[in-house]
Amino acid sequence: MKIYTSIYIKQIILSLTFTLVTHSLWAQEVDSIKVRTAIDTTKTELNMDAVYNRPFLNFKKLPVALGGYLEANSIYSSEDGVSEGLSFQARRLTVFMSASISKRIKFLTEIELEEGGKEIAIEFAALDVIIAPEINFRGGIIMNPIGAFNQNHDGPKWEFVERPDVAVNLLPATWSNPGFGIFGKMHQDNWTLGYEAYLTNGFDGSIIDNEENKTFLPAAKANGERFEESNNGQALITGKIALKNRTIGELGLSYMGGVYNKFEEDGLTLDKKRRVDVFAIDVNTTLKKFDTYIVGEAAFVKVDVPETFTQQYGEKQFGAFIDIVQPILKRNVLNWENATLNLAVRFDYVDWNIGSFNETQTDIGEDLWAITPAISFRPTSQTVFRLNYRFQEQTDILNNPAAKKASWLFGLSTYF
Amino acid sequence: MKSIINICFLAFLILGFLVSCEEGLIDAPQENEILDGPIEGLTTAQQIQFLNGDLAFSDVFTIDEGLGPIFIANQCLSCHPGDGRGSPFVRFTRFGQSDSSGNQFLDLGGPQLQHKAIPGFQPEELPDGAPFADFIAPPVTGLGFLDAVSDADLIALSDPNDSNGDGISGVPHWNSIPDYVSLRPNSVQQNGMYISRFGKKANSYDLLQQTAGAYNQDMGVTSLFEPHDPLTGLEEDPEVSTQVINDVVAYLKTLKEPIPRDQNDPDVIVGKELFTQIQCAVCHIPTLQTGFSPIEAISFKEFHPYTDLLLHDMGAGLDDGYTEGYAETYEWRTPPLWGLGLARDAQGGQLFLMHDGRATSIEEAILLHGGEAEQSKNNFIQLSELEKEQLLKFLESL
Questions:
Q1: For an engineered disulfide with B222, which of A103, A176, B147, B236 has Cβ 3.0 to 4.6 Å away?
Q2: Helix, strand, coil % (nearest 5) of chain B?
């Protein structure tokens, strides 16, 4: 939940963070009471498990686990020859806590502080009631399972400083809403089938009326009121099916849709109901022979934009990314066991406005592509140093000569 | 071996910190390849206001910020991408006036048709029987120089009675002006009218009138200067501040003039001579002089816009039956030709020329000239293919 004004909640979270840090320092002195659950977070089960598949500090006699991660980087970029110079960014500090309330009831929350605490978001805070592996109940603030990145977005899991464009500039990662739903998994031999289905609050009119001047689903993130009430009394439906074979990889198909506009108020009809529908596919696999890890995601968005509104806001959108990560060295370095050096590359593509102009029947622009070669070093699977070079071209709506941007990024991200 | 690997790791970290170097970054385009950017010689204060105006020019109006309810576009840049000319995507229609008696359709939404509407509202439709013309927006570069040409110079360029017998009789647009504009130094009055010079019909006196009118008629945004909502006609609280409007006006005044390219190319040199020979330069005057301007970088400067800022009879083919102010329906202000060669970069790689974008090439635009320009068009037709190519190459170099 984006909270911009509530000093009270900020104080609570900062106090909580302080408590965690001081507790952690104190815990160094009495290490015997805690156990670090170290897991290789680069190898998840299903993407839907990512929220729990994190390294936690477990306290032996307490049913509580703590964790978090930090992302920071330097950036030097220029766009069409204009550079802002060198900057350092502390993009996010995320703290997560989980608790086993009883044998079949678990709670987990993820609180993110961005831009030095300027933005505080409760990205996840849900109660899970474990009924059976095949069917479980979840309620609270959930991360809508559209694509894979929205649920599996922890910085230390990725070799790139920037998040994929399709995830954050087409889809609204990290996209959380209050709601309820069910999820479950079924296993047979090497196969795992998982599903999730939720009803939540959702989007609002800002997706076609925003300062980006394009249909922009992330614009709805700014509306914190969605955590208090629905914009229009219509639930956003999100569902996902994921299939994983232990030797092949994972394939996910997801859908998210609902009415986004406020179509009536106080019994008066303001507009017809207008829908936004999102379809996504995500894949990840490891080529065993070369140990090459490949992960990608594509999304198609369809929005009912009023015919009389400006074509600046597109009715159809598409975006995709693919990461290819190749470990080139895995051995002990400075006493780090199995430290890994990776070469990686990411391809990004987003078209915010698919179609042609009514007036000229020529193609509408408003698209972006980018390529990001990267070198990353992981002293452990939970900490990554990454050096990225990103080159992107972005056209305006008229398809005028693309704005070219190049960036050097050096950053670190680590669980703690 | 182990130490080598450790050194490699340290080198990786050091490399990371050294990426502050500019290797691999994007070079700036040449100044003559782009339209945007400030004129040289601005003071620090003027540069700051230029930057503020630049931001406001690209600012997107949302519904909450006052867009509409009926409108044409939601930001200045939509109609003037890259500070260049508009495209049919944001073509707009004005209607309601066919002679100097004024607009007869003001109570039916004139003078501009807001053909888009925010959700829940209906856009305007052209009233039956209303005279109208379509328009695309002009480029906005170098406007400060055009603004600073003295009225006396424009009067000197005019030839209302064609006293020199060349068939060309440009006239200033003597027009009434809104209360909120400030007269430029040494402005000339004639029967209570002043020379207006901006817009396709030269209907706007200055850049403040042009800007406040655009916020109101193009975006449905009210201001202290134009406080009436285009839909209701009612006076509303300002939706854009006076400071923002002033910043945008300052930005428009201090946008640099387009810089010509390839001026030493032999074909361009010949083309430039042909431009004068076939009398294009009688209306598209290559060089003008500014008078006094409070912006020193503009004051008393020679510049090359290829316009006379006067109204000319352009013939029946370009007479849409609609007019503004006291211009005739067949009269159009000579558009500046500077920046013509960069028009494609603002129009999606295509060309849409003339007042409504009806011409998709420079040659087609020339052939659409009539009236006072009929002879120049015929002179162009009689050129050899090589000469036509040279003339077009010159125009592309502007």
A1: B236
A2: 35, 10, 55
pLDDT band with cut points at 50, 70 and 90 for residue A407: very high
Q: Indicate yes or no: CB of B15 within 8 angstroms of CB of A387.
A: yes
Q: Is A121 helix (H, G, I), strand (E, B) or coil?
A: strand
Domains and CATH numbers, chain A: 2-415 (2.40.160.10)
Show the tokens assigned to B249: 């006006």
The residue ranges of DSSP E strands in A80-134, in sequence order, are 82-102, 105-114, 119-132
Interface membership of B161 toward A (CB under 8 Å)? no
pLDDT value at position B29?
87
Q: Are A317 and A278 a contacting pair, CB within 8 Å?
A: no
Find the closest chain A residue to B28 by CA distance. A81
The interface pTM score, or ipTM, of the predicted complex is: 0.88
State whether A408 and B24 contact (CB < 8 Å).
yes
Task: Check residue A56 and give its pLDDT.
Answer: 85
Q: Which residues of B touch A231 (CB under 8 A)?
A: none
First to last CA, chain A: 23
Q: Among residues 202-231 of chain A, which lie with CB inside 8 Å of chain B?
A: 205-206, 208-213
Buried b (16+ CB within 10 A) or exposed e, A227-261: eeebbbebbbbbbbebbbeeeebbebebbbbbbbb
A337 touches chain B (CB under 8 A): no
Q: Return d(Cα A367, Cα A363) in angstroms, integer.
A: 11
B-interface mutation test, from A263, A357, A398, A412, most B Cβ less than 10 A away: A398
Give residue-wise pLDDT tens across range A108-133: 999 999 877 788 889 999 999 999 99
- DSSP alpha helix (H) spans, A267-314: none
Looking up tokens 């074509």 gives: A311
What confidence tier does A337 reach under pLDDT thresholds 50, 70, 90?
A: confident
Contact residues for A180 (Cβ-Cβ < 8 A; gap 6+): A137, A138, A139, A198, A199, A200
Closest CA to A23 of A59, A70, A71: A59
> Which region holds residue A101: left if phi is over 0, alpha if psi is between -120 and 50, else beta?
alpha
For residue B159, what pLDDT band results from cuts at 50, 70 and 90?
Answer: very high
Asked if A272 is an interface residue toward chain B (Cβ–Cβ < 8 A), one would say: no
- Cα(B56)–Cα(B248) distance, rounded to whole angstroms? 6
Q: Tell me which range, A118-127, A267-276, B243-252, is most confidently predicted by mean pLDDT.
A: B243-252
* CA angle (A64 as vertex; A63, A67 as ends), nearest 5: 150
Beta-bridged to residue A415, according to DSSP, are A69
Q: What angle do CA A254, A124, A147 make, to 5 degrees?
A: 20
Q: Which of A12-21, A313-322, B248-257, B282-291 has the lowest mean pLDDT?
A: A12-21
Going by C-alpha positions, the residue among B249, B196, B241, B211 that lies closest to residue B53 is B249
Q: What is the CA radius of gyration of chain B?
A: 24
Mean of pLDDT values over A240-263: 95
Q: Which residues contact residue A387 at a Cβ distance below 8 angstroms, ignoring those fewer than 6 apart?
A: A374, A375, A376, A408, A409, A410, B12, B15, B16, B19
Domain assignments of chain B as residue spans, ordered by start: 31-259+279-382
Distance from CA of B145 to the nearest CA of A (A): 26
Residue B359 contacts A where some CB pair is shorter than 8 Å: no
Cβ contacts of B164 within 8 Å, gap of 6 or more: none
Chain B neighbors of A76, CB-CB under 8 A: 19-22, 25
Give CA–CA dist A138/A147, Å, rounded: 19
Q: Residue A367's beta-bridge partner residues?
A: A351
Contact map slice: B 107-136 vs A, CB within 8 A: 116-123
The phi and psi torsions of B79 (rounded to 5 degrees) equal -90, -25
Contact at 8 Å (CB) between A397 and A366? yes
Q: Which residues of A touch B123 (CB under 8 A)?
A: 308
